[in-house]
Specification:
The protein is an alpha+beta fold and about 120 residues long. The protein has a single domain (about 15-120), classed as 2-Layer Sandwich (Translation Initiation Factor IF3). The chain is built from 2 helices and 4 strands, in the order E-E-H-H-E-E. Strand 3 and strand 4 form a beta hairpin. The longest helix is centred in the middle third of the chain and has 24 residues, at about 65-85. The chain is elongated, with a radius of gyration of 18 Å. The relative contact order is 0.30. Belongs to the UPF0145 family. This is UPF0145 protein BN159_4066. InterPro entries: UPF0145_dom_sf, UPF0145_YbjQ-like.
Length: about 120
């Protein structure tokens, strides 16, 4: 499969490449496996809601909510990569996030894309 050498991130190279584009320069798609997703729903913490309410009156970044959203997006992406790996993919193309309110009790984050097998050209 051989994508270990691709990527400009820090640390070890990923075994599943995730990109927002429809292709990867220098690689060709050998197989399209299909749509995959990683989903998580996070409830709101009462303390962060109170703090956010107070902060919204004076303006500024809602750091507690920002931290929670980053953690939630990371978890959704990890689940997406797990699903790609389980289905035999070594890349995910057209990666996106979808964020919605879940019945006024939390935030739903869905990471989705197309699982594929790519190889160097």
């Amino acid at each position: 499969m051989g994508i270990e050498e691709y990527g400009g991130g820090q640390g070890p190279q990923p075994d599943v490449l995730v990109v927002t584009t429809n292709d990867v320069p220098g690689y060709r798609v050998q197989e399209v496996i299909g749509e995959i997703f990683g989903l998580t729903v996070r409830s709101r913490h009462l303390g962060s809601q109170i703090g956010a309410g107070l902060k919204s009156m004076v303006g500024g970044e809602l750091k507690g909510l920002t931290k929670t959203l980053v953690q939630t997006r990371n978890q959704a992406m990890e689940r997406l990569v797990e699903q790609a790996r389980a289905r035999g993919a070594n890349a995910v193309l057209a990666f996106r996030f979808d964020v919605t309110e879940a019945a006024d009790v939390g935030t739903e984050v869905c990471a989705y894309g197309t699982a594929v097998v790519v190889a160097r050209e």
